[in-house]
């Protein structure tokens, strides 16, 4: 597998952990997220996408690997342009929203400042 994206969490909005706990998803956004959205986001320091994101790839959060089960139609565009995607932990095989990446994460995912997020195709 080839790494196509790597970033580090540099800031955490006050409501971001609630999105994981209550909605089973995390929202990544590059620096400069709109204020009304930033409070729900994990801010990241990179938006350099070097390849395609595909079903069957994997997301690695720190040292935990999660298989990619569905990729929304604008995930790559949004990640490359804004550093913005939603990662849903529901394991759905059908993309719900165009900007959502679905992964199979049966256990709660823990994100903190300094957490590394990588995507492999």
From TrEMBL:
Molecular functions per Gene Ontology: kinase activity; protein-N(PI)-phosphohistidine-sugar phosphotransferase activity
InterPro entries the UniProt entry points to: PTS_IIA_glucitol/sorbitol-sp, PTS_IIA_glucitol/sorbitol_sf
GO cellular component term of the entry, any: cytoplasm
One Pfam family hit: PTSIIA_gutA
GO biological process: phosphoenolpyruvate-dependent sugar phosphotransferase system
Cited PANTHER family: PTS SYSTEM GLUCITOL/SORBITOL-SPECIFIC EIIA COMPONENT, PTS SYSTEM GLUCITOL_SORBITOL-SPECIFIC EIIA COMPONENT
The protein's name: PTS system, glucitol/sorbitol-specific IIA component
Protein species of origin: Streptococcus gallolyticus
């Amino acid at each position: 597998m080839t790494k196509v994206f790597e970033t580090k969490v540099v800031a955490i909005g006050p409501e971001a952990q609630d999105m994981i706990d209550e909605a089973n998803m995390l929202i990544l956004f590059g620096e400069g997220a709109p204020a009304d959205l930033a409070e729900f986001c994990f801010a990241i320091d990179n938006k350099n996408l070097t390849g395609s994101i595909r079903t069957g790839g994997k997301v690695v959060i720190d040292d935990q690997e999660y298989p990619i089960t569905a990729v929304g139609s604008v995930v790559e565009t949004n990640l490359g342009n804004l550093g913005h995607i939603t990662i849903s932990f529901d394991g759905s095989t059908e993309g719900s929203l165009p900007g959502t990446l679905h992964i199979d994460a049966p256990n709660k995912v823990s994100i903190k400042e300094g957490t590394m997020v990588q995507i492999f195709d």
